[in-house]
Input
Amino acid sequence: MSTTTTASPNEAKLWGGGKSPFNLEYGKVMMWYFLMSDAFTFGAFLISYGTVRFSTNGWPDSNEVFRSFPFAPEGVHAPLVFVSIMTFILIVSSVTMVLAVHAGHNMDKKGVVRNMILTIIGGIAFLSCQAWEWNHLFHEGAWWGSNPFLNADGTASSTNFTNFFFTITGFHGFHVFSGVVINIIMLIMTLMDKFEQRGHYLMIEKAGLYWHFVDLVWVFVFTIFYLL
Amino acid sequence: MSHSHNADANHEASNAAAMAEIKKVTILLSVLTVIELILGFWMIGISSAALRLAIKGVIVILMMAKAFYIVAYFMHLKHEVKNMIMTIIVPLSLFIWFIAAFLWDGSSFRNLRNTYNPYFKEQAGIKVEKKEAEHGAATHGAAKHEAVKHEAGATEAKETPAEKH
Output
């Protein structure tokens, strides 16, 4: 806010040191740039998936491949149901993360702890869902280099579909896993009063940026693999 | 950070505003996801390629809207200094070229192979016998398979004498 008044007349002074031109702490700026590079990594994965799909005549029907549900009888046909639960788990855990950041603004340690615990539970729930889905697909014969599914038009399919699926959801799942680990570290640091001593909860905000990015990537992965 | 510099009343007001914003964005994201899922379910029974493409277009737009709300509000980018926003958004605009060029390349490669590679073209017309028993296809009925066949019908009408007629 205060930067708008000084922006144009003292341009040199703004960048001359002594104040923060972006009005952001160094670590947060660097987290943004890391996330930008990570966005290009995920972008490259998803765009290569698109390129290969566009260059192929047939492609498996995602509603046929992702049609099962835990504890459901064999052969059940419930497309999109399980993945919509996973999506909502991640959205809810993103919301609890925002609430943790918000509590951190107010120096409300209790609020931070409560919401961090909820976020961690959400992350673990998502990972469990993904583990179940991978396990299920593996037992149907799908893995890197092996694709038991036919194309939607009944023609033979290549292994491109499973290769991309396991690589991209695996890379995303690894991000979720590291996000959970980071969140657990943040929770421990909060419980040890580290942030109370520092006088600010900026670390929670940085972990929050990472966690929201994980949710953001899932928006794309979910849409591209399960809906399109 | 910016909360600390003013009076208590001001702090309370911005606090309430922030909570209202979180609530609003949460509801928006949920509604957009539900619409996406409804479109996804609706698409299962649709065989018209043009309509499917239109629905996919809508889903992509909804996806971009969700991405915007997460980045702008949950990641707080909308409330940062303009220069900061630009250092993130301007490099990401590379994606416009990235997506357009590579999808175009993929589709061009398919056209070239369908034109000049008879084997590639032939493979797209050969159906594999589906092992019905293994997939428990009986439970989800013939209607679905019917739809799938119709969709495929355009490309390989000559190969499939539809069982029904």
Observations:
- Chain A is about 70% helix and 0% strand.
- The two ends of chain A are 42 Å apart (CA to CA).
- Chain A touches chain B through 65 residues (CB under 8 Å).
- The mean pLDDT of chain A is 91.
